[in-house]
Design goal:
Elements lengths: L20 H23 L6 H15 L2 E7 L2 E6 L6 E5 L5 E6 H13 L8 E7 L10 H10 L3 E5 L8 H13 L4 E9 L1 H12 L2 H4 L2 E7 L7 H7 L2 H6 L2 H8 L1 H5 L8 E7 L21 H4 L6 E5 L10 H13 L15
Parallel strand pairs: 5-6, 5-7, 7-8, 8-9, 9-10
Antiparallel strand pairs: 1-2, 2-3, 3-4
Helix pairs in contact: 1-2, 4-13, 5-6
Length: 348
């Protein structure tokens, strides 16, 4: 099958091109199903039934599309319903059980009382914040978090944001409040998947120099640093464009605007892209090598301290052992140790 040459003026309304929308819809659907699958795998308890794990995972993935973190201390978190004018908030304990609901002000006060009373232990020293991608929840990052916790002398935490309910600036502001709520942390590193990297870069664009002085390193997994041809393809169809919401809508319809608001990190950062190494990638919808969602060329960003291409699909990165090992290596040393192949061995 011939490759598509993606151009801004391309339209897909004619009967002869309508069939091309099916793979795109299936690709987007697969990403969302993977979020539920990853969450279900993480939620399943030893000895429990897979059905219970599945429903628990689907519920967790759905909630991840509604609630954004405002405070994260270890595995405790305070969340608000993103985009809700009534500012509904809740507190989750380390098992993700809701122990308090109410106004944001009331939940913040209760969270502070729990901290002062010692029920929420303070986080000190080094910390790593892990961010999920578009349409996913923080549960999707648990396989990677588990691996990092076994190999780092740092507190590894997840940051969740409701990607469809608000734009990048709102998610970046939530990230800023989470960081401000960790005053005893001396150093912070980031690991982002897909859009999670854009949230960090948007925060860097609004942060004061004093706020970024304790940032150490960052690993970007499948980041759409140069935008997304898949999103541009969706923008060419009125139906798909109308379905986009929140940060996804910005990626689909307003990339030129948000790109100017994204800051390139001044600290050490490395990029891991997914690709087959054959110049064709995992989908016929995109030109060149790709991970089925983001092209290898789209992940690049000038100034990266290291770059690695691994044979993995976009939605599977967090669970891939080579990705996990390389991420851990970069957070430790500021470089990748590739179990498979390096950039020089990968055809771009």
């Amino acid at each position: 099958m011939a490759r598509l040459s993606l151009r801004p003026q391309r339209q897909f309304h004619s009967a002869g091109h309508r069939w091309l929308l099916l793979p795109l819809v299936l690709s987007l659907l697969a990403s969302h199903l993977s979020a539920a699958e990853n969450a279900a795998t993480s939620a399943e308890q030893p000895g429990g039934g897979w059905i219970d794990g599945l429903f628990s995972g689907v519920r967790a993935a759905a909630e991840g599309l509604e609630w954004s973190d405002e405070r994260v201390v270890g595995d405790w978190r305070l969340q608000r319903r993103a985009g809700d004018e009534d500012v509904v908030a809740r507190i989750l304990d380390p098992t993700d059980q809701v122990i308090e609901t109410g106004s944001l002000q009331a939940c913040l006060a209760q969270f502070s009382r729990l901290e002062r009373g010692g029920q929420i232990p303070a986080v000190t020293g080094e910390a790593v914040l892990v961010l999920h991608g578009l349409g996913e929840s923080r549960q999707s990052m648990r396989p990677l978090v588990k691996h990092l916790r076994t190999g780092l002398d740092a507190t590894v935490m997840t940051f969740g944001y409701a990607s469809p309910r608000a734009g990048l600036a709102a998610h970046a502001s939530s990230l800023a409040r989470v960081l401000a709520g960790l005053p005893q942390v001396t150093g912070v590193s980031f690991v982002g998947h897909s859009m999670g990297n854009l949230v960090v870069r948007r925060w860097l664009g609004m942060a004061d120099p004093g706020d970024t002085s304790r940032i150490r390193r960052m690993v970007m997994l499948g980041p759409p640093n140069q935008g997304s041809d898949l999103a541009r393809l969706a923008a060419g169809n009125s139906l798909l464009a109308s379905l986009a919401a929140g940060a996804g809508r910005e990626l689909v319809l307003h990339w030129d605007t948000i790109a100017r608001q994204l800051q390139t990190p001044e600290f050490e950062y490395g990029i891991i892209a997914g690709g087959k190494g054959d110049g064709r990638g995992y989908t016929v919808l995109l030109e060149g090598d790709d991970d089925a969602v983001v092209r290898v060329a789209e992940t690049r960003l000038d100034g990266a301290h290291d770059f690695l291409v691994l044979p993995v699909r976009h939605s599977r990165m967090m669970r891939h052992p080579d990705v996990q090992a390389a991420t851990l290596q970069f957070l430790r040393e500021g470089r990748f140790s590739s179990p498979t192949q390096t950039e020089g061995e990968q055809e771009q």
